[in-house]
Batch of 2 targets.
Target 1
Amino acid sequence: MNENNIENIKSQMRKGVLEYCILSVLDKNDAYASELINKLKEARIIVVEGTLYPLLTRQKNQGLLTYRWEESTQGPPRKYYSLTDKGRTVLQEMDKAWTEIVETLDILRK
Amino acid sequence: MNENNIENIKSQMRKGVLEYCILSVLDKNDAYASELINKLKEARIIVVEGTLYPLLTRQKNQGLLTYRWEESTQGPPRKYYSLTDKGRTVLQEMDKAWTEIVETLDILRK
DNA sequence: TTTTGATACCTTGTATCGCAAGGTACTAAA
DNA sequence: TTTAGTACCTTGCGATACAAGGTATCAAAA
């Protein structure tokens, strides 16, 4: 077990909340994939393209997200994702679930 | 998307913290597998045998846990797991990582 | 005009991990 | 000696994150 293990541990923990993070960010502003990656990177949540694109597609297929194309002055067009009503409802459920887990861990650690 | 989905969301979120939960529980008292399952169930963290046994073996192989056999008056012998020094060190790292993620989510959700 | 670099999209193959289901073994009571 | 309870463990499957590689658009440099 080496130093990478700390990153590995964090990576494991992040896995369960990635979808929650995506919906949370999109709840505040619509965004396109590369933008999302950067925003999450700033928040120290590392996501790579190969993770994010399938995830966005999954969430879109579940009816949580929609998207629209927008031209860019600096490259190819961008696919802006935004929450649907269903997405907002699920986000609220996730809020509850997250709060519950944080409380549970608090108790377990005491 | 039905009511099961809420459980599914919680299940996803729990995934990342299962190892952390195990080490946390064992940090307080040695325990055998069936006992661990019950303790976690009380804390609303559902784990099944097919998940727990391989996980304990992984953690043992990583040097985080050791075990000893103890006779039982009520059935087959029990395999009591306990934290090693390395396990305690990793648990501290997990504490930090968890705190960090909770803070990050707090910020993301604001 | 062609090439290069930047941006942005997406797919494929691999590894990990949780879960459902099934299997073994010990003990005590019926 | 069979059944019930407890405890251990394995196998096969599905979901998902990641690494790596691929396609397409645009603008600026060669």
Note: Residues 37 and 43 of chain B are 10 Å apart (CA to CA).
Target 2
Amino acid sequence: MIPTQMLKGVLDGCILAVIGRRETYGYEIAEMLRGYGFGRIAEGTVYPLLLRLERGGLIEATYRDSAAGPRRKYYRLTAQGQEALRAFWAHYRALSSAAEALWQDTEGKSDEQTH
Amino acid sequence: MIPTQMLKGVLDGCILAVIGRRETYGYEIAEMLRGYGFGRIAEGTVYPLLLRLERGGLIEATYRDSAAGPRRKYYRLTAQGQEALRAFWAHYRALSSAAEALWQDTEGKSDEQTH
DNA sequence: GTGATTATATTGTAATGCAAGGTATTGAAA
DNA sequence: TTTCAATACCTTGCATTACAATATAATCAC
């Protein structure tokens, strides 16, 4: 299980990415994230985050009836949301590169100690 | 600049990694992280985090005089800290893989929309 | 002695994942 | 009919943590 703290500041971008693929709703987004390997993301996490993104103008929603259950709130990216998605991944890349560089050095050091 | 929220839950592991390379102190750790590309990590971030790791038994410290400035507090990993470092990277790998998989799909989708 | 650099530490704030709880719809089992 | 599971949305309050701001102090150049 990925620690909750490690998801902070990453989940919002990932949700933007999921919505960017195609229109979808909260319940399904949680399932998708699980499918991608993020682990079970609580509904108490997903829904507040979606509302935050909606209020921020990054996504917009339409309610639609479902054949099996209550109506769904389908989200799609706004132009602003697409821009935010790009910015998010640029930042993620920066973090990822830094972590990777650090990890390389750490591994080298472990080898020295082991051998 | 990497958003501060994105650093949450990552910084502690990165600091463990830096200390794992060799004994070092707070001020230098902040400089190293900057060198790796994490951006400027504030002192108000580094010192509380070091104290937290120390209290948690993941690192231990020795004060040493410096030739140019006040004394330094040198940290090194404990056995528990080395274990925590391994666990951290395992979790980071999981997050990284999930994000990468999601990003791949997103990129494909962008292509479709573009072409 | 004045400022710059080096160095550690504390306090309070803002952001956010999530547990816990609530509401409501559909369909199958009892 | 009642009950349960699965689906679907939302809110409240808590715990964690990066950081700005601030304080303290030692060394060295001017």
Note: The longest helix of chain B spans residues 79-114.
